[in-house]
Amino acid sequence: MRFDTLILTLACLLTACAGPVPTDHSTNSPSPTARLPVARHSPAPSLTPVPPPTRRPVTPTKLPATMPISSLTPLPPLYNYVFPIQPPGAATYGEGVRAHGYPATDLFAEIGTKFVAVTDGVVEFVSGVDSWKPNQPDPARRGGLAIAILGDDGLRYYGSHLSGIAPGIYTSVRVKAGQLLGYVGNSGDARGKTPHLHFGISRPTDPHDWKTRRGEIDPFPYLNAWKKGLNWTPQLP
Fold this sequence. Notes:
The chain is of the alpha+beta class. The protein is built from four helices and ten strands, in the order H-E-E-H-E-E-E-E-E-E-E-E-H-H. It has a domain at 85-227: Distorted Sandwich (Glucose Permease (Domain IIA)), CATH 2.70.70.10. Helices cover 14% and strands 21% of the residues.
């Protein structure tokens, strides 16, 4: 056998043993006949169910329908009041509506007894001259020596038949509760009568409105309260 024939025969044998050469579609694509490995999953572990948390019932707090008075903190009074005659025991008085025919009170005391401001305020009216004449009974002058203040509580406080006005007391002067205004007497139409202080409480009007100034609110219950140290504010009817 010739040498070239031998080489050709060997090449044919090698080709037959290797089989067909696969077509290269993609270097990354798997062969259609390739088998993918089957994923094996471990069985899920058995879990013990956890019971839900126990919830305790919530009982709503019940507030009392009415708070006891003892549990409330009392508010301080808005205004301070003192008895108009000092010392308070120096005066006697009673309900004056029947005596006057309108709300007012006469406080009987000796001449010269102190008449003071019942609350903080401003002097509104001062009559420093006793111009009362019995033969000319002008109602605007029958109070004689008199003083009226407008309290910070919005009310007017009037005292008349005084025997004198305290130094430094004139209109527009600010005064404090308990400050001296004048002295009990018997001026005006109380001349010749028992000395006393005519005391009236009213709403503020014109300072010379004598009919209102003499009294619109019965002072009697408030005088009783102030004498006991209670800060009661008068109320208009």
